[in-house]
Amino acid sequence: MKLTLWKSRDGGTTWARIDVGPDAPRAQGAIGNSDMDLAVAPDGTIYFVTLFFDVEKYEGRQVSVGVSNDVGATWKWTLLSNTRFDDRPWVKVAPDGAAHVIWNDGAGVCHAVSQDGGLTWTERERVHPRGLSSHLAMGPSGEIAVRITPVSASGNRYDEGVDLIAVSTDRA
User: Fold this and answer.
1) Of 8, 30, 148, 172, which alpha carbon lies 20 to 30 A from 15's?
2) What is the DSSP string of 121-168?
3) The model's pTM
4) Main-chain dihedrals φ then ψ at residue 104, nearest 5 degrees
């Protein structure tokens, strides 16, 4: 399924579709049909994270992030995960320009970071060993807050007692 992203150059009066890149093969990453999120870095770099959801198996299968340094004219895609039950990706950019992506896969909340404008991504230690990545927020000094709820793995798992906010103040 072709990803759809639009932009306006006149304050929202008119909109034009952005070509975010090829949608095949799936391993290149420019594919998605479910949860998506956008973030813009201080330097104007656009981050577009997306989930591919297998409607036949009723489960998430892939999380990818696209990066554009030219207002959406060109995109570089990176496959972050192709794990069964991938779900709910979110992206935010810290004041120092580091991009953070979280998602869950039924075995906890995953976290990847790019500190070079999306050229490379490093998966960090899991934010939490259980639950769903419900929301991601970034503070003015690089604080990270992640909302974690009990239902995860595309609705296939329920983690009793998981309902929390994880906070990091060390910019990691």
Assistant:
1) 30
2) -EEEEEEESSSEEEEEEE-TTS-EEEEEESEETTTTEE-TT--EEEEE
3) 0.92
4) -125, 160
Q: Report the alpha-carbon distance of residue 123 to residue 43 in Å, rounded.
A: 23
Amino acid of residue 124:
R
Write down the pLDDT at residue 135: 94
The residue type of 98 is A
Which residues contact residue 139 at a Cβ distance below 8 angstroms, ignoring those fewer than 6 apart? Answer: 145
Both tokens of residue 146? 């992640």
Residue type, 110: C
End-to-end CA distance of the chain, in Å? Answer: 34
Nearest to 63 by CA among 77, 74, 75: 77
Token pair 């639950």 is found at 131
Lay out the sheet containing 59-68: strands in order across: 36-40, 46-54, 59-68, 76-81
pLDDT of residue 24: 52
The token pair at 95 is 């004041």
Given a contact cutoff of 8 angstroms between Cβ atoms, the answer to whether 152 and 130 are in contact is: yes
